[in-house]
Amino acid sequence: MPALCRILPAFAFFLIITGTAAAQDAAKGEAVFKRLCGTCHMVGPDAKNRLGPTLNGIVDRKAGQVPGYAYSPANRGSSVTWGETELKTYLRDPRGFMPGTKMLYAGLRSDADLADLLAYLRRFDVEGKAADR
User: Is 16 in a helix, a strand, or coil?
Assistant: First the structure.
């Protein structure tokens, strides 16, 4: 029994570390972005506003701030700063989080896809330069 007591905490730590790494895979997040976001949004140095604004530097940016994009009054007038919690909540249910938003997307339910997507988006600074951040 004492040996088991020493092994279990190490095993639990291993599961936490590997689970976190697996749940935050920027390469998988890129695939999620292309599949679900890329029609309306762009990231990268040549990104332009489309149906939705560019998402360069989205993490920790105040809502409604991309130059040249015509935001809804709900988004433009909100006091939201897009931290990870806000982004996850918004991406799960855009209209529930921000009634009046122009975002037409119904929502992303998968925790793993959300974590991977945010890992991918975190890589891009405001100018669209990709870095391991």
Answer: helix
pLDDT tens readout for residues 60-102: 999 999 999 999 999 999 999 999 999 999 999 999 999 999 9
Closest CA to 66 of 97, 41, 36, 94: 41
Please tell me the distance from the alpha carbon of residue 22 to that of residue 115, in angstroms, as a whole number.
9
Angle 111-122/84-92 helices, nearest 10 degrees?
130
| Options 1.10.3720.10, 1.10.760.10, 1.10.10.10, 3.10.450.50; CATH of 24-122 | 1.10.760.10
The answer on pLDDT for 4 being more than 50 is: no
0.90 surpassed by pTM: no
